[in-house]
Write a structure and sequence with these properties.
Blueprint lengths: L10 H4 L10 E11 L3 E11 L2 H9 L4 H6 L1 E2 L1 H10 L6 E8 L3
Antiparallel strand pairs: 1-2, 1-3, 2-4
Length: 101
């Protein structure tokens, strides 16, 4: 995993949110990291947001900004969450860790 420079700012960190009256939709992604001797940690996150930038900022509150930046959007996870919690308040965060040592 690449270390982040102190002054580096990802584009989604400086983008402004859409107006508050913009309808939010469910965004979902997965990200993770592998460290020798520590194992593999994968994160799954889904929540309502008005834009991808807002979604990544919310994810960065749970994992670091570098992981939030590398997160891959997941249509499968988004569809699964929409099917199960249609019309309800949603925020799903799953941390899956495997130690191979």
């Amino acid at each position: 995993m690449r270390l982040r420079a102190e002054q580096e700012v990802f584009p989604w960190e400086r983008e402004e949110d859409l107006p508050l009256d913009a309808p939010p939709s469910i965004w979902a992604a997965r990200t993770g990291h592998f460290a020798t001797g520590e194992g593999l940690t994968t994160y799954y996150y889904a929540t309502y947001a008005r834009s991808e930038a807002e979604f990544r900022r919310k994810l960065a509150r749970r994992v670091d900004a570098t992981l939030a930046n590398s997160a891959q959007l997941s249509d499968y996870l988004r569809a699964w969450v929409e099917k199960r919690w249609r019309g309800g308040a949603v925020s799903l965060f799953v941390e899956h860790h495997v130690n191979y040592s």
